[in-house]
Design brief:
CATH topology: Rossmann fold
Number of domains: 1
Strand order of the largest sheet: 3-2-1-4-5-7-6
CATH architecture: 3-Layer(aba) Sandwich
Strand content: 15-25%
Structural class: alpha/beta
């Protein structure tokens, strides 16, 4: 019999993107520094995220009087579209730059029902305070314990979102080969691990998929800075490596702008907190 919790752990160990004690602070600093650029991409792709929220509403997983805990919220990727449909959202993230970008955007849009909480998921101790515990593309939820901790924070419902296989990380993978070398795509983000963990735990999860074509436009220097900071997590970014990144991106840009087009696909895994409950 397969122990899916153990298998998920093995998948993380195989991944070159695994957060380690040595890289944890580098990741945190990267996300804080990248927050404003990340927010601009989120705005460009907002139709996808709004579609996810609307699908959750249509399927009955999000209700108008809900309080939602958004774990690893980033700059409000989902917190902002959620805020238009629910009573309140608590955006939890350990990158203070991400939460600062979210607060600035809330002020600009006049959003008053989002509260920010600057802490790591393992530091969160409030139990049963939210109608929905939600985590999307979040490095904070990466094990069966993290998944079950979502239930502790929730009164009734949980939703975990991860990426389906698609081409949207193509540039990152191309640059990895040139700058770090030997990129091996792992499957640590596969939905099969949390799905089977929930089934083994006698939950009755529901799985949905949303897919969309996306397009973003960014200044070349902003894209170069993003990837120089990103690869600095994994390797020393020498002047030669910086030039490799710059040349690769510039050669694929036009009039000082890098345009990224691709397919983004998301799996939405939803379940009730109570064991064996049928919907």
């Amino acid at each position: 019999m397969i122990d899916w919790g153990v298998e998920w752990g093995h998948a993380r160990e195989r991944s070159p993107l695994t957060v380690t004690p040595e890289t944890k602070e580098k990741w945190r600093a990267f996300w804080s520094k990248d927050a404003n650029g990340y927010l601009e991409d989120v705005k460009a792709e907002r139709a996808l995220y709004e579609e996810v929220v609307q699908r959750l509403i249509n399927e009955g997983w999000v209700l108008k009087d809900d309080s939602i805990l958004d774990i690893g919220s980033g700059p409000g990727t989902f917190a902002i579209p959620f805020s238009r449909h629910v009573r309140s959202v608590t955006a939890l993230d350990d990158a203070d730059g991400m939460l600062a970008a979210l607060r600035k955007e809330c002020a600009a849009q006049g959003i008053r029902n989002i509260e920010t909480l600057n802490c790591g998921w393992g530091e969160h101790t409030m139990e049963g305070q939210y109608d929905l515990a939600f985590a999307a593309l979040s490095p904070a939820v990466r094990s069966s314990n993290d998944l079950m901790a979502m239930e502790k924070a929730s009164r009734s419902r949980c939703c975990y979102i991860t990426a389906c296989p698609s081409d949207w990380m193509g540039l990152r993978n191309e640059l990895w080969e040139k700058v770090v070398g030997g990129f091996v795509s792992g499957d640590a983000s596969s939905v099969r691990y949390p799905l089977n963990i929930l089934l083994e735990s006698r939950r009755s999860p529901e799985l949905f998929r949303v897919r969309a074509e996306t397009e973003t436009h960014n200044p070349v220097q902003a894209v170069v800075d993003h990837y120089v900071n990103y690869f600095g997590i994994f390797t020393e970014m020498t002047p030669q490596k910086v030039e490799i990144v710059r040349d690769h991106i510039t050669s694929r840009s036009h009039d000082g702008t890098y345009t990224s087009r691709g397919t983004k696909c998301l799996y939405m895994l939803c379940w009730e907190k109570r064991m064996g409950t049928e919907r």
